[in-house]
Design brief:
Low-confidence stretches of chain A: 1-8
Pfam families (chains A, B): TetR_N
GO molecular function (chains A, B): DNA-binding transcription factor activity; transcription cis-regulatory region binding
Number of helices of chain A: 9
Protein name (chains A, B): TetR family transcriptional regulator
CATH class of the largest domain in chain A: Mainly Alpha
Distance between the termini of chain A: 55 Å
Number of domains of chain A: 2
Helix content of chain A: over 70%
Oligomer: homodimer
Radius of gyration of chain A: 20 Å
GO biological process, one term (chains A, B): negative regulation of DNA-templated transcription
Organism (chains A, B): Planomonospora sphaerica
CATH superfamily of the largest domain in chain A: Tetracycline Repressor, domain 2
Mean pLDDT of chain A: 93
Chain lengths: ~210, ~210
DNA sequence: GGGTCATCCTACGCGCGGGTAACCAGGTCA
DNA sequence: TGACCTGGTTACCCGCGCGTAGGATGACCC
């Protein structure tokens, strides 16, 4: 069913770093399936084929474990976005690539995007901080391009950037959930067209 | 500080319906401030100036209380969106009004939008259901207009609708959090311009 | 005044789950 | 061969917070 590719014959000894990676992988499965609160440390340990204290030898607590995972994927998303914008200097293709980054992120690595886009635990400061960092930095990069291309003020460009990120994020999640009704390429191109028509040569007033 | 306008001199007896409304109001405060999980039934009761069993005479459990509140605000959001689209037949103004609906919703009634847009508890089926209903119905209404106006297929129009809703939602939340840097009217007009440029006369292919 | 009904209180049961104490096993090196 | 280090285990503690049992209090009617 939903078994990790990692072997787990409850009894194999692993070197520290290998075990750590495996624990992170198990934790990701459980957190993604159940969310933070419904996830039990017992289950994470069990899923890794190991007992609970082992978990606590690698991570001081549940929240820290979660944050480690969250950091990983926030960095991933930001990197994808940055790379997309750096992949070309043609702004139309930049839009296409950036939107594609969101669709790729959402369809990648075992639904890990849920940690970033659907986290319960937003009320805890360190988590909120990381999630907002994702939005802020992605939008910041985009708003840079917008400001160069149009005459918008910084505040306006930021708001537009945030709007575009929101569009990409929400549509990507929706596309994933309605699996199959539209192929990925078609979906990204559709959204890219919407975004590009909206943003290209954006008028200062109008 | 953050006290309800309702009086709460711990000892006043209230008729059933009045008490119920007051409990809902107290619960909203606490759920919005802390999220579902960090919210304690004890605190909700205390905030209402009443003891816990009273709460349980009105609602069978914590989750049902939360759902009652959630329903209220999901309905509110959907109604705002529907009214916005029905307020005119000019599609450009429709876009403006619909975006405005999101900004109004977000800035209204004590940050209650957090229940709909930032709920921890999405993993619980009845909650997820209601949150998705909001997205689905809002996007559905918009996609109707899109299909009439452009030659898009139903699937494409739905994806576009979801994207626009996401754009509105996320930008509205961002605008609220960066309080003051842009006036509300300017922000909605900015986003409406982005959306309208993107969607108006959307080409079947391109 | 006394029944009775609705409203509200104090005080407790209890399960769940994060975190820990104390102990075992096997490889390596002097 | 025995000290020792690394990696692992079982079994437990304990606090928090939802939900409830059982009792008080006051309004209203006869």
């Amino acid at each position: 069913m939903t078994t990790t590719p990692d072997a787990k014959p409850r009894g194999t000894r692993l070197p520290r770093m290998a075990r750590r990676r495996q624990l992170l992988s198990a934790a990701q499965e459980v957190f993604v399936e159940n969310g933070y609160h419904a996830a039990a440390m017992d289950e994470i340990a069990e899923r890794a084929g190991v007992s609970k204290p082992v978990l606590y030898q690698h991570f001081p607590g549940k929240q820290e474990l979660y944050l480690a995972l969250l950091d990983l994927h926030v960095d991933d998303m930001i990197t994808r976005c940055r790379d997309a914008l750096a992949s070309t200097t043609d702004n139309k293709q930049r839009v296409q690539a950036a939107i594609g980054a969101f669709f790729d992120f959402v369809s990648g690595q075992g639904e890990a995007f849920r940690l970033v886009f659907e986290s319960d635990l937003r009320n805890v400061a360190p988590v909120r901080q990381r999630i907002e960092r994702n939005l802020r930095e992605s939008a910041e990069m985009i708003s840079q391009v917008i400001q160069e291309d149009t005459g918008c003020s910084s505040d306006e460009a930021h708001l537009l950037g945030v709007g575009l990120v929101g569009m990409a994020e929400v549509s990507a999640r929706y596309w994933l959930s309605s699996n199959g009704s539209i192929p990925k390429d078609a979906a990204t191109q559709l959204m890219a067209r919407l975004a590009w028509r909206g943003i290209s040569g954006f008028p200062r007033t109008g």
